[in-house]
Design a protein that fits this description.
four-stranded antiparallel beta sheet, 3 helices, isomerase, PPIase_dom_sf, PPIase_PpiC_CS, globular
């Protein structure tokens, strides 16, 4: 469980041409990532977020299928973390959320994310 100064979050990451590492567990050679624009990644995440917020989809299930992060194997769960452990935009967005809330699109060097604060 997260201590008082930590948060816990899950996320869905879509990598794109601008991502610092153009490979992932589901695209080891980066063929899809290298052809995905940031705009396409954002549009995909907006659609996913809409489906989750409306109840049409489950965050963890979608993360397992779609996320480019290895945390997909855990439904996107990153576990607890404190300040300074994640890229700044990701950290700031997570700390700004209330437990159970889902962020808008968050851009980092890794790609585009939606984040769900879980603790």
């Amino acid at each position: 469980m997260a201590s008082r100064d930590q948060v816990k979050a899950s996320h869905i990451l879509i990598k794109h041409q601008g991502s610092r590492r153009k490979a992932s567990w589901k695209d080891p050679e980066g063929k899809i990532i290298m052809t995905t624009t940031r705009e396409a990644a954002v549009e995909q995440l907006k659609s996913i977020r809409e489906d989750i917020v409306s109840g049409k989809a489950n965050f963890e299930e979608v993360a397992t299928r779609v996320s480019d992060c290895s945390s997909a194997k855990r439904g996107g769960d990153l576990g607890p973390f404190g300040r300074g452990q994640m890229q700044k935009p990701f950290e700031e967005a997570t700390y700004a959320l209330k437990v159970g809330e889902i962020s808008d699109i968050v851009d980092t060097d890794s790609g585009a994310h939606i984040i769900k604060r879980t603790a």
